Batch of 3 targets.
Target 1
Amino acid sequence: MKLTPQVKRILDNYETDNASTKINLARVLMHGKLAGTGKLIILPVDQGMEHGPARSFAANPAAYDPHYHYKMAIDAGLNAYAAPLGALECGAISYGDQIPTILKLNNANSLNDVKNQAITGSVKEAVRLGCAGIGYTIYPGSDYCYEQIDILQELTREAKESGLIVVVWSYPRGGPFLDKAGETAVDICAYAAHIAAQLGAHIIKVKPPTSHLCLPAAKKVYEEQKIDVSTLAKRAEHIMQSAFAGRRLVLFSGGEQTSEASLFETFQGLKDGGASGAIIGRNTFQRKREDALAMLDKIIDIFKG
Amino acid sequence: MKLTPQVKRILDNYETDNASTKINLARVLMHGKLAGTGKLIILPVDQGMEHGPARSFAANPAAYDPHYHYKMAIDAGLNAYAAPLGALECGAISYGDQIPTILKLNNANSLNDVKNQAITGSVKEAVRLGCAGIGYTIYPGSDYCYEQIDILQELTREAKESGLIVVVWSYPRGGPFLDKAGETAVDICAYAAHIAAQLGAHIIKVKPPTSHLCLPAAKKVYEEQKIDVSTLAKRAEHIMQSAFAGRRLVLFSGGEQTSEASLFETFQGLKDGGASGAIIGRNTFQRKREDALAMLDKIIDIFKG
Amino acid sequence: MKLTPQVKRILDNYETDNASTKINLARVLMHGKLAGTGKLIILPVDQGMEHGPARSFAANPAAYDPHYHYKMAIDAGLNAYAAPLGALECGAISYGDQIPTILKLNNANSLNDVKNQAITGSVKEAVRLGCAGIGYTIYPGSDYCYEQIDILQELTREAKESGLIVVVWSYPRGGPFLDKAGETAVDICAYAAHIAAQLGAHIIKVKPPTSHLCLPAAKKVYEEQKIDVSTLAKRAEHIMQSAFAGRRLVLFSGGEQTSEASLFETFQGLKDGGASGAIIGRNTFQRKREDALAMLDKIIDIFKG
Amino acid sequence: MKLTPQVKRILDNYETDNASTKINLARVLMHGKLAGTGKLIILPVDQGMEHGPARSFAANPAAYDPHYHYKMAIDAGLNAYAAPLGALECGAISYGDQIPTILKLNNANSLNDVKNQAITGSVKEAVRLGCAGIGYTIYPGSDYCYEQIDILQELTREAKESGLIVVVWSYPRGGPFLDKAGETAVDICAYAAHIAAQLGAHIIKVKPPTSHLCLPAAKKVYEEQKIDVSTLAKRAEHIMQSAFAGRRLVLFSGGEQTSEASLFETFQGLKDGGASGAIIGRNTFQRKREDALAMLDKIIDIFKG
Amino acid sequence: MKLTPQVKRILDNYETDNASTKINLARVLMHGKLAGTGKLIILPVDQGMEHGPARSFAANPAAYDPHYHYKMAIDAGLNAYAAPLGALECGAISYGDQIPTILKLNNANSLNDVKNQAITGSVKEAVRLGCAGIGYTIYPGSDYCYEQIDILQELTREAKESGLIVVVWSYPRGGPFLDKAGETAVDICAYAAHIAAQLGAHIIKVKPPTSHLCLPAAKKVYEEQKIDVSTLAKRAEHIMQSAFAGRRLVLFSGGEQTSEASLFETFQGLKDGGASGAIIGRNTFQRKREDALAMLDKIIDIFKG
C-alpha cells in the first residue's frame, strides 16, 4: 500500500530510526480502517494477567480464548493487537499475517500490591513471534520507577536494533507526591508523556487527563502561564505538545466510563485536541462481539472524522 | 508411534513452538499407559528437598534411592518423571531411554520460611541430562513473585530455544491478600493457571480448587456472573477455561486426602471437568510399591475413562 | 579548521586518550563562536525530564519542540548541545552535522524524591546518534553515589573505547553531611570537581560555589591554609586547581539568578578565576529566542574577553 | 593404578558425569593410604581465613606456611588437600603432582557475624591451579541460603563442564528454626546431606550428628517410623541413606573432641555406619607434625578396617 | 637489569603466576633506589578522592597537579606510584616509562560515611594505561566486606590473566566487633594480612599494629601461646608470619605520626621485624618537595640497612 502524506509526515518525525523500524511503524499506521489517516487504535489484552481471568472475561466468556481477541482486532479493522507472551504464542501462526502485534514485555498481577511489574517477555521473543513492536509499562513516581526505566532503556535499544517499534504505557503511580486523583491530573499526564518521549518511545499510551493539577510547583506554572486545561480537547492538545510538540504518537485509553455516550464524548474530545488515537481494551472484550464491533466502528469514525 | 487425533489437536494449540519442542511434548503425551489419550500423569519427586528425607521417605525406605522413582514412573506407565538435578544425575543413563524426564530448576527447603525457591538447575543441565523439559515453581502473591517471573522468563526463552517444554507449578502464596484458605480458592487457582499460561508454560500445575472465593473484587464477579463453582468438576472446567479456553494442558495434584477413596473421587471430579491429568508425588512414594502401582492404575483408568 | 595553540594545549592534557576521543574533544572546542579560544559553552536540555514539560517550556512554548534547542545551540554559536535520548533522536539527522551533541545517559524526574537517576541511554545509542560524547550525573554524598560511580566507571571505559568524550555533572547531594547550603559550598564544589576528574571525566560540570565551608574537617584546613574564597573569581580558581591544577575542563552553571546583570556578573567572576566555560540551560530556553540569543552573545563575549 | 572394584562401584553411581570428572574423582579415590578402598580422608585448611591466623596456627607455628599442609597431606597419605586460593597458589607447582587438590571457592571470616561467605575463587582458577575439584559451603537455614545455592548451581555446572568434582560443605545454620543444638541434630544433618546431594555434589561434608531431633515435623516422623538414632553408627547409616541411599560420598568432621580417644571413637562409629570417610582440619595442624601423622594413621586404619 | 638473589627468592614464592605477572612484579622490585634489595616503597595518592583536594593538597599546593606525584615517585627513587584512574590518565604518557604504576580500582570519599568504596577503574583500564598492577581496598569486618571480596575475586582473576600484579589494602573496619582501637590491634592486622594473602594478593598493605588485642577469642590464644607483641618489630614479624610465613610481600603505612623522628622509628621497627617495605602517601606530599625527598631518602636507607 502506498504511504499517504499523513503517514509520511509521521515517519519523518522518527528520523533516526532504521528502515526496519520505520517499516514496522508504517505497517501499523497503514493497517485497518484507519490505514493512512495517521490515526491508530490498538487493542490491548493483558487484563487477565492484571485482574484475573474471571474479572476480565466472565462477562463475555468467548474472550477466555486468545483467538477471540486476534479475530476482534482483525474484524474491527484496528491497527494492532497487543498482549503478553502466552496469548501471542497461541495465535501468532493463525493470525500473524492479518494484524500487526505488540508483545507486552512486562505485566503486573493483583495478587500483590507491589507497584512494579514482572518481566514476562523479551525482544527475542517478539522477533520470534513476528511482532511489529514491544510494549512496556512504567510507573513514574513509584519507588521502582528508575529500575523500570533502566530495564526499558536496554529493551528499547535492543528493540530498535532488531527493527521493532517501542510502545510505552506511561502510568504515574505511587511515590510521595501522587494520590489517586494525581494519577490522571493533567500536569502528571503531560509529564508522563514527556518522560516516555525522552526514553525513546515511538508510541506513548497515557490516560485521559482530568483538569486537576497535582504537583504544587507545576500548578503554579499552569496558573501563571494561563495554560488552558478547561476542556478535554485543550488538555489533549497540551499532552500532545508535551510529547515533543506532537512529534510522537500519543494514544489514550477511554478512562472509566459510565456509558457508551460518555466514552464517545471522551474520544471526540481527545480527537479534537489532536490525539493520535486510542488504546481500548476492557471496553471491547467485556461486551458482546457485535456490540464491541459497533462501538469500535463509532470510535474509528471519530478518529477518521 | 503414530500421533493420535487427540494428541495432534493438543499440539496444534502450541502453534508457535519449534519442531524440537513439539517433539518433546509429543514424547510425553505418547508415553505410558495414557499414551495418545491426550491425558497425562507426571511423577514429581522433590519432596526430600522440600520437607527433608525422613519426612519424605521413611514411610517407605526404598524411596531413599532415586532409582526407585525412575522405576516407579516406568513400571506404572506414567508419562514423565520430574525431579531436581541430583536425583536425575543418579539415573539418567540407567533409565533415561525408558521415561521422559523434567528437570525441576528451582526448589525450596523447610529449614527456612522464606517464600521463595533457590535455583537448583539450568536449561543447560536439562539438555545435558536428556530431559524433555524443565519445571519451575512460582508463588503468585509472594513478595518474590516478580523476581521469580523475571527468572522464569529467561529460562522459558532458553528452554524453547533448546527445544524443551516448560512445566510451571503455579502456587499462589504469601502477600497481603492470601491466607491459607485463599491458596486453594477457586478464583485464585484460576488466576494462577492464567498467569502460568501467559508466561508461556506448556504444562501448568495447580492445586485442586475449593469453592472458596478469596479476592473481594473477584468474588463480586463470580456472583454477578453466576459462575458455577459448586462441584469440583465445574471448578476444574473453570480452571481449564482460564488456561486459554483449554488451549493449555493443566495438571492437578490430589490435594490433602484422608483416604484413597477420596483421592479417586477428587481425580474423577477433575477429569469430569476436563482436567488434562495429574501430578502425584507424595501419595505415590509414601506407600508400598505394590500399593502405589495399584493406586496409580486406578487413577490412570479414571483419566482414560 | 586548524587547531589553535590554546586548544592544542588543552588536548595535551588528555594525553592518554585515543585519537578518536581527542578529535571529538577538538570538535567541541573548535565549534561555534568560542572556537579555538579554549573556552566553551554547552546548552543542556534535560529540564523537561527533570521538572516536567510545562514547568520547563510553558514560558516559551516554542521550546516544547526538540528542534528548537538544536537551532538555538547552532544559531547562538555554542560549542555543543546535550540532551536525553528522545530529544536527540528527534533531530540528529536534521541538525547533527551542524553542532556536536552529548547524549545524557541518566536523568532524574521530580515525581519521586529518590536521590538517584535512571539510566536513560547508552554508549551504543550515543554512537548510533553520531554524538561527540556522553553525559552523566553523579550525586556525591547520596546513598546511591557509589552505585552511580560503579556504573559511570563502566560507561566511561566504554565511551573512551568508542572514541567519545565524557562529561560529568558532579552535584553533591544527600547523605549525612550535606544540607542545602552545603551543596554549593566552595569546599564541596571543589571536592565534586576533584572526584569527577579522578573518575576520568574530560569535562566537568559544577555549580558556582558560594563562600560557605561545609565539612568541619575541610573548614579547618581552608582557614589554616588561608585559602582565599572571598570572591567568586578566587573560588573558581580554587575549583580549577582542584581539577588537577587546571588540567581538566570545568564548566559552571549560572546558578539561581534574579537578573541578567547578576548572571553576567557571575560568569565574569568565574571567567576571571579561569573557568573553562558555562553550561546554561533554563536561562536560555525560558525566555524569548531573541532575548536568549542576545544573552548568550553577552556570555560568549565574557568568555572570549 | 588399576581401579579396584570398590572404586568402580562408586564411579558407577556418578553415571552422568563426563570422563574428565570421573577421572578426577578416581584420582582422589586412588590416592594415598586409602587408595582403592572406596574410603577417603581430605585435609581442609581454611581455618586461618575463618578464625584468624593466630587462633589457627600459633599452637604449631610451622603451620603458618602453606607448604606445611601440602606436605602433611602428602606424608600422611591422605586423599586430597582443600584450601582457598592464596594457599594453593603458594604450592601448586611444588606439590601439585603429589596430591589432588580442592579449591575452596567461598569462605567466611570472623570479623563479622553475617551468616554468609564471600566468593574467594572460581572454577577458572581451579583449572589454572590443576585442582581435581572445587569446594563450596552452604548454610541451609540461613537467610542467604537460596542466594548461596543460586551461586553454587552456576559453579557446579561450570565445574562439571570443566571436568572437576564438586565438594559441598553442608552446614545448617541460622534462620528461624535452628539453634546451636539444631545444627548437629540428626534430622538436620540428614536433611543437609540430602540437599547437597540434590544440588549435584559429588562429595558431601557434614558434621557428625547427635541424637537430637530439631524440627517438630521431622521429630514426629522419626518417632512414628521408629528410626534408630541411638548410636552414632545408626545415625551415620541414616545420613548415608539420606544421600541417595548411599549413592553419594559423605564425609564427616570429627566434631569438637576432648581427647584423641573420643575422636577415634567418633570415627569408628561413623565408619561402622558406612561413612565414606573424614574431613579433618584443625585436629591435624594444631598439634605437632609427628602427633598429627600418628593420629591420621589411626584414623586411616579405622576407615581401612 | 639482572635479578638479584633476593628478588629471585621472592619471585619463587609466586610460583603459580604466569611469566607476565612475574615480570611486572620484578619490574617493581628492580626499580628505584631499593632495586634488587627485595624491599619496596610505593607512593599512593588517592587522598584527594578520600578526603577532598584542599585537605590533601593545600599544605603544598604544587601537589594539586598529578604530574607532581609522578615526579616525586621518580625523583625519590621509589618502586611504584599508585593512584586512581584520572590521575594516571594525566601522566601515563609523560612518565609511564620512568616508574611502574598501580591503578587503584576502588575508592571512598568522605561526603558519605558508608563503609564501602566505589569501583573507579578496571583491569582493562590498567592495561590501557600500561600499569604494572591493580590496587584494591577491602574493609574486613564491614557489612560490605563479602561483597567487596566477591568483586576483588573477579578483578584478581582478570588481573592475573592480564599479567598484572594485585595489591590489596586490607583495612579492617566496621562490623559488630571492631572499634577504632581494634582497627590497628595486632590480632586484627595479622588477620587482615592473612585474608589478603588467601585472596591471592601479591602485595599486601596493612597499618602498623599496636599491641592491643581486639577479639576475645584471639586474645586468649595470644596469651596462652605467649605470642610476643611487646615491640613493633615483634608485631611486624607476627604479621609477616601471618602472610603465609613471609611468602607474601607486606607493606606498612607510617601510621599517624607526630614527628619525623617517630615516623623513622616506626619504619625501623617494622624493618627489624622483616616488613617488606612501606606505602607512604600523605606524609610525602603534605610537606615541601625537598623535605619529602629528604624524608623518603631516610626511609629508603632504613629499608636498605
Target 2
Amino acid sequence: MSTLVQTIAVLGGTGAEGSGLALRWARAGLRVILGSRNPEKAAKACRELNALAGTDSISFADNRSAAAAAAIVVLTVPHQVQRATVEEVRDAIAGKILIDTTVPLVPPKVARVQLPAGGSAVAEVQRMLGATVRVVSAFQNVPAHNLRDLDHPVDCDVLVCGDDVAAREIVIGLARDVGLRAYHAGPVCNSAAAEALTSILICLNIRYKVPGAGIRITGIPDTTS
Amino acid sequence: MSTLVQTIAVLGGTGAEGSGLALRWARAGLRVILGSRNPEKAAKACRELNALAGTDSISFADNRSAAAAAAIVVLTVPHQVQRATVEEVRDAIAGKILIDTTVPLVPPKVARVQLPAGGSAVAEVQRMLGATVRVVSAFQNVPAHNLRDLDHPVDCDVLVCGDDVAAREIVIGLARDVGLRAYHAGPVCNSAAAEALTSILICLNIRYKVPGAGIRITGIPDTTS
C-alpha cells in the first residue's frame, strides 16, 4: 500500500471508472471519499462498493467537501463537465495533487480521435489551475469494467503524465495499489497520447467485438517500472 | 506472404525505419525498391540489406521512379520533408495506397508530444492528396533497431489507421509479412494516437534506459486480429 496517501477523493465516484478505482483502492487499504452531486446515488454506490471490497472505508460527500477532506483528488467525470467540476473544487485542491482521468471524447463519434484545440484535455486543466495544483494524467486507458471485476487482474498499463516528477511517482504508487503497472510518460502535455489512445481502444472494442481492449508497454523489464 | 502485393517502394528507404521494413519484406519474399535522393547511399544500403536478407530482391531508384514502379508506396522520411516528398511523387502514386509512417517529432524535444495544428501529420497528407490516393498510417511505434535484428521477433503491435477499410486490410497483411500483429484502428485522423505515442515511447526509452519500448494491444484474442 502506498504509504504517502491515506485518503483519496474520487470526484464523479459513482461513475464506472471512478467507482472501479474507488473499489480497488479501498481493497488496498486506503480511505476513499466518493464525491458526487447526487447524495442518494452516492449512498447506494458506497454501500455496494464497501460490500464488494469487504470494507467500510468508502464514504461519500459533495465534490467540494470530498476534495477538501483528501490529500489526493481524482477527477473521473465526463469531459463535458470536467472544467466546471474543477472550478467547483478549485479552492479545495490548492497545494494538492489532482489526478485527472479525463478523455476528451466527442459523442456520438467516440471512436474517432478528436483532441481539443490545445492538444490535451488534462493539460488544459493544468494551464487553468496554474502552479498551485500538481495535475497528473492517468488511468485513461483502463477498461472500467475490468476494475470492478476483483477476481481478475487488469490487463492494461497506465501512462502517467505530469510536469512534477514527485507527483507522478505518487500516482504510479497508487496505480500499483490497484494492481496496475504504471510508467513515467513525460510532461502533462503528453497526456494527449493517452487521451487519443482511448478512442483507438473503443474502436478496437467495436471492430473486434471485445469488452475491453487495453495496452501494455513492452521492452521495459518489470523491475524498472 | 501477402498475395495482393508484389512490389513495394520504400521512400526514404536508406533510413533506419525504412531499411528495417525493406529488409523484413524482402525476407518475406516481396520485391522492394528503396527510394532515395542519394544513389550512392542507396546502392550501399541495397547491398547490405540483400546480404542480410539473403536475397537479391531489393533494388533502388530515385523516389519518383520507385513510386512509379510499385503498387504500394511507403513513406519513411523525416517529418520535415514529408510533404515535399509527397509532392515529388504525387503523380506517381495516384490510385495507389500510400503507407505513411511519419511521426511529427519536433526536435530537440522529441519526447514531448507536439502534434500539428490539424491533429495528425498523416491525416494532413490524406487531406493534401484528396481521394486519389488511399493513405494508411502504420508502423509509427515499431522500434527501428528491432526491425534490423532478424534473430528476434519485434515485441510491438501496429495500429493501422485509414479511411479505406480494404486498404487497411492490405497494410495489416504487410505487417503480418514482417512478423507484426496489426489492428484496424479507425479512420486516418486516429493516426494522431500512434503519432503521439511515439514521443511517449521515446520518453520511456530515456527514463527507463531501454533501447526500444513498444506497445501491445491486450484484450483481443489472437485469432481475431
Target 3
Amino acid sequence: MSEKKKRFIAVIGGGECSAQEAEMAEAVGRELARRGAILVCGGLGGVMKAACKGASSEGGVTIGILPGDNNKEANPYVKIPIVTGMGYARNIAVVKSAQAVIAIGGSYGTLSEISHALQSGIPVIGLNTWSLSRNGQPDNSIIPAQDPTEAVNKALT
Amino acid sequence: MSEKKKRFIAVIGGGECSAQEAEMAEAVGRELARRGAILVCGGLGGVMKAACKGASSEGGVTIGILPGDNNKEANPYVKIPIVTGMGYARNIAVVKSAQAVIAIGGSYGTLSEISHALQSGIPVIGLNTWSLSRNGQPDNSIIPAQDPTEAVNKALT
Amino acid sequence: MSEKKKRFIAVIGGGECSAQEAEMAEAVGRELARRGAILVCGGLGGVMKAACKGASSEGGVTIGILPGDNNKEANPYVKIPIVTGMGYARNIAVVKSAQAVIAIGGSYGTLSEISHALQSGIPVIGLNTWSLSRNGQPDNSIIPAQDPTEAVNKALT
Amino acid sequence: MSEKKKRFIAVIGGGECSAQEAEMAEAVGRELARRGAILVCGGLGGVMKAACKGASSEGGVTIGILPGDNNKEANPYVKIPIVTGMGYARNIAVVKSAQAVIAIGGSYGTLSEISHALQSGIPVIGLNTWSLSRNGQPDNSIIPAQDPTEAVNKALT
C-alpha cells in the first residue's frame, strides 16, 4: 500500500510534559502505529518524544519537523527528520502535513499549532489541553477525547 | 529621534470584521499614531485596514507584513509593505516585530498570533477577543482592555 | 535499521525539465533507492517527479516538501508529503533535510537551493546544472558529476 | 507623498565584507536616500550595515528584515526592524519586498537572495558580485554596474 494513502496524524504538545501526559502520548503513538497511521510531530522532547516512542515500539513511521538547523536535535524515535531552520514557523508545517491533530496538554506553542490547524480546517482532538472562548462565547472546535484510544478513534474517523 | 527607539505595536484581528471592531481598530490606530508608536499588522483588510486607516489619519507609520507575493495585496493605508511569500508563517513576524500586541476580535489566525506572541513573551492586550483556559484552568495571559484608549495605554506601558 | 541512520539525499531541479534531465533524475532516484538512501525533494513535477518515480520503482522512500497548502499537489510517487504552506521558503527545508544534494539542470529556484545548501555546508553534486563565479573568480563548490551513478556515488561518499 | 509610492530597493551582500565593499554599500545607501528610495536589507552587519549607514546619513528610511528573534541584532542604522525568527527564510522577504535588488560582493547567502529575486522576476544589479552560467551557457540576468551611482540608476530605472 502506498504510504500516501496512509493517514498522517500530528501529535502536538509540550516539549516538556508531565508523566501523565507522556503516558498518554505514548499510548496515542502506539495506537496510531497499530492502526497504520504515520505520526507527524515537531520532533523534539516531551509529548513529541513520548508519542514517537510509542509509535516506534509498534514499528510505526515517525516524522519530526524540526525548528533548528540540525537533525541531531530530533528525539531518538524520529525516523524521518525534516530540518527546517525556520524556528516556530515549522509549527505550521506540522499541522498542515496531517489530516487530523491530537493535542495533549501543551503551552502556547501547542496553542499556536491548534490555531493553525483550525484555521486550515484540520480537525483537532484534545486530551487535557486548551479550551477556547471567543468574545465570551465558548468555541467548541477542539473535539474532546477522554483517553488515548478515543483520541485516535476520532482522529482516524 | 530614531524610529528604532519608537515603540512598535502590532494590531491583530480578522481580515473581515464587524463595524464595531473596525471602529475600535481605527481608534486604536489613531491613538497609537498620536503617541508616536509605529503600527505593525498583517497588511490586509478588516481590522488591519481599519487600524492602518486610523494611524494614517494621524500621520503615523504603518507596516504591513503580507502573506502573499505582491505588495498590491496591502490595504491602501500601509506605508511599509513587507512581502514575505510565506503564507501564515508571516503571522509570526507580525508579532515578533512588536513590543506589544493589541488583539481585536479575530478568528483562528488571530489566535495563532496571540499564541506566538505569548510564546515569545510579548504582552497581548485583548479587546473583545479570545479567552483561554488550559486543562480546565483559566489562563489570564491576555490582558483585557475595555476600550481602545485603555488598550493603547496598556500596550505602551 | 533505523531510517534515521539512513542517508537522506535531496534531488533538486526544475519543475519542468527536458527528457534528458528526466531520464537522469529517474536514474538518480533508482540508484539512491537501490543503495538504501531516502530521497528528499520539493515534491512537484519535472526533475522531482522523475526522481521519485525512479526511487519508487526500486521500493525507495520518497519525501516531498511542498510549497503549497495541500498534499494533492505532490507528484504520485511521493510517499511522505510534507505540507508547508510557505512557498519557496520550503526550498530551505528541502536541502537542510539532506546530507548531500544532487542538482540536475534547473532554473533560479534550483539555484536558490544550491545556494542554501552551500551556505549550510551541505555538499552539492551537479549534473548539467549551474556553475558559479564570484567577483570574476570561478567558485568550484558544486562538485561535477558525469552521470547519475557518479552523482550518487559522490553524494553517498 | 505616500511611502507606498516610494521605491523600495534591497541592498544585499555579506554580513562581513571588505573595506571596498563597505564603501560601495555606503555610497549606494546614500544615493538611494537622496533619491527618495527606501532601503530594505537583512538588517545585520557588513554590507547591510554600511548601506544603512549611508542611507541614514542622508535621512533615509532603512528596513532590516532580521533572521533571529530579537530586534537587538539589527545594526544601529536600521530604523524599521522586522523580526522574523525564521533564519535564512527571511532572505526571501528581503528581496520580495523590493522592486529591485543591488548585490554587492557576497557569499552563498547573497547568492540565495539573487536566486530568489530572479525567480520572482525582480531585477538584480550587481557590483563585484556573483556571475552565473547554466549548463555551460552564461546567464546574464544579473545586470552589471561599474559603480554605486550606476547601480542606483539602474535600480531606479
